[in-house]
Amino acid sequence: MNEGQQLGKYRILKPLGHGGEGSVYLAEDEGLGRYVAVKRLWEREEPESGKRDRESREQDGEGGERIKAEAAFLRDLRHPMLPVVYELLYEDGWLLVMEYIEGISLHNYIEKQGSVGEAQARLWAAALLDVLDYLHNRETPVIYRDLKPDNIMVCRGGNLKLVDFGAAGLRSFGEEDGARMAFSAGFAAPEQRGEDGLGVRADERSDLYAFGKTLYYMVTGAVPGDSPGMSFPASYYNPLLSKKLEEIIRRCTEEKPEARYQVAGEVMRDLAQNAPRGKGGRGREFVRHIEKQICLTDFYHI
């Protein structure tokens, strides 16, 4: 799409980025006078011999039904850390119109800052766990599958937003025979990369693995390796890091899913139990915040 191009009531202003699932543009909703993010959804790769006419395939065929189903589940998500999905439309391809999130990616933020202190990392970790807990505990659980610093926005007020649900999927039990799954080196769990001989798959524990790697990146500024031998312990880069937080990172990023935390609530409880409890300051602020989240989680799961 080109700058100034008109798509119904939306006028394209500039590109914002692109990835494995599509390109994103900043646009103006001329009807409501607001900025929005417009994502052009790319077709999943298929053999050249299996390609049919694009428009008939996408609008009326399996490709169009898949995109409509995925957009429908995105529209149903409601959480302070998730952008609102406004509509799905077709203009020479499928376009997803979403809330525009102004800020900087966590990846770029850490590149500029070097790393963040433990108190800030714990607050952000609690926020990420809260949104993962929300996704994983829906009636049909949603597995994000691509948690990484590039998909987390740091907004002006310092709060986080989780963006780019292109890789997300509904909970799938067992193996996905013959399936391929997009993954991000350094952050994706081994089972998403198909490295354990059991086929490609992802569940809640896969998201917690990526969370652990993201937390590692926050407190060290170092991009984690794909296997334990390729990454130094977090304390190698940050000697002031508490042993408790390092243990949480280690347990999240165990190679075998059964050795990790099994649900986000377990990590939330360990963060709260191991948080600094000094006289006032960020430590007590964190404890109050995370204890509130645990109470809310317990209430909604009764």
Please provide a written account of the structure.
The chain is an alpha+beta fold. The chain has 10 helices and 11 strands. It has helices at 54-60, 62-75, 106-113, 118-136, 190-193, 204-220, 234-237, 243-252, 264-273, 281-300; strands at residues 6-7, 10-19, 22-29, 34-41, 85-90, 94-99, 103-105, 142-143, 152-155, 160-162, 169-170. It has a 6-stranded antiparallel beta sheet with strand order 1-2-3-4-6-5, with helices on one face. A 3-stranded antiparallel beta sheet has the order 7-9-10. The chain has a two-stranded antiparallel ribbon with strand order 8-11. Helix 1 packs across helix 2. The longest helix is centred in the last third of the chain and has 20 residues, at 281-300. The radius of gyration is 20 Å and the shape is globular. Residues 44-60, 172-178, 279-283 and 291-302 have low confidence and may be disordered.
State the major sheet. Answer: 6 strands, antiparallel
Query: Mean of residue pLDDT?
Result: 80
What portion of the residues fall into strands of 2 or more residues? 15-25%
The side-by-side strand order for the widest beta sheet comes to: 1-2-3-4-6-5
**Compute the gyration radius: what is it?**
20 Å
Number of helical stretches of at least 4 residues: 10
**Global shape:** globular
Parts with pLDDT < 50 across at least 5 consecutive residues: 44-60, 172-178, 279-283, 291-302
Helix fraction by DSSP (H/I, runs of at least 4)? 25-40%
Please tally the β strands and state the result: 11
Give, in order, the helices and strands.
EEEEHHEEEHHEEEEHHHHHH
By helix and strand content, what is the structural category?
alpha+beta
Q: State the end-to-end CA separation.
A: 48 Å
